[in-house]
Amino acid sequence: MNIKDLGKVHVAIPKLAEDLRDGRVDRREFLRTSVLLGLAIPTAYSMASLLTGEPLMPQALAQETPRKGGTLRLGIFVMDASDPAIYDWSEKGNSARQLIEPLVQVGTDNLAQPHLAEKWQASEDVKTWTLYLRKDVKWSNGDAFNADDVIATFTRWLDSKTGSSNQGRFSGLTVKDGDTVKMAPNALEKVDANTVRFNFTNAMLSFPESLGDYPALITHRDFATKHEANLIKNPIGTGPFNLKEYVVGQRAVYTKKADYWGGEPYVDELQFIDLGADPAAELAALSSGQVDLLYKLDPNLLPGYQANPTIKIYDKDTAIVGVARMRVTEKPFDNKKVRQALQACVDHDRLLQLAYQGLGTPGQDFHVAPIHPEYTDLGPLKQDYDKAKKLLAEAGYPNGLDIEINCVDDPKWEGQIAVVLSEMMKPAGINLKVNVLPGGTYWDRWTKWPFSVTQWTTRPLGVQVLDVAYRKGAAWNENGYDNPEFEALLNQAQATIDVPKRKEIMKKIEQILQDDAISIIPFWLKIYTASSDKVQGFAYHFAREMYLHRVWLSA
Q: What's the predicted TM-score (pTM) here?
């Protein structure tokens, strides 16, 4: 295959291919970046194979012919999933994903692939993106899916009144107007009924990946205008299932859509069953046949799952993390030396062992994970109580410090992080009180607590979470972080297609975050789930996204 034979491709792809051939980038980064720039996934794999001599694609194991029919029961929290624009739990995204869909789907191979968008093209400077929408998709009310749906959805996301995390996720489509943020002029351009152009104020290399994030689900053009902004009351969707019943805290029931554009689902019905917060209830439900598949399982109970020969276990390395973050606008965390003192008390390896059985990778106090292609290892952090005491004294606390940390009661490992941190800080004279709160109480104020543990889900690129969580004014900026140097470098990273150059920029970002000491990043999780051995065709997703229309049940 010659690059000239591919027709029109992004100008950066030939250079990217040369970098792969000459060893300046690895296969994974070539695949990721070329696909982001619009190269079809099969073509990207073919090029990588020819340039490296590695196998074309991972070989799938031969499977039986899928069996149609039956009911698939999933154990998962059934939460209020009214308005997709403001989802803050991936469980909500999974409830909605059966009904409505993203423009782009990030696969279990961590590559962005077309979904409601058939393909996309990026300008040379990756500021302008053109998405070509599928023409064979209909909403469940009979309307054709088109550009109006995409523009209406984005318009809601970018309106500060909505309160959507997508405003930060797609910040390059916005401008600041005094103390508010609003959609930039000409940000969204309807080219024709099935084509939308996005004009960013700054480069946005991660745009396709961000379109696959769990709150980035496209709603009908009349959502929140002619209809109430409530997906449960107005379940109009393009997805593989229709909603039959939804009871928060109990169950959700979906029936298959035989004419789904992506192919008729194998099972006739989906049932989402809320098993509560007790991990033992999940094990009991799967073992007794109450459910067929779990959204997650507690690693502390792995031996119980492993002891049952009828249970299949799945695992995945991720960028999921329980961030012990400090709100830098609140005393005493407005003093960097206090924050650095807390960090100096932490033994990350020991923390991983005590809080999560060692099933993960120690953090280095910056929110970029080893699975991210931009990641640079800055070296392990050392516990240093003398340093912690010196910093506290310089900050005006020579006799120690009394502070509190808040965490949610489920999952249990988040509370364990707080408990272990409390013990680790005692030798430095820091008395850390741990407040374990019920979910409703914690999440009502999760962006406001002075010091707390917040679970962040995984994302394919490091720049994605940095966009959403650490830009000034972003809805999910729970640290209250405001660093113009950081944001300028993040803009550079989003604009830099050359992989080695982008990694150098990201290394500087990591060093800034580590030095500013706004968070303790304890460890990156390996996650687990399980199913009955009757469940076939299930692929475990690194962000726990549940794509179930191609899952089937053996006899």
A: 0.85
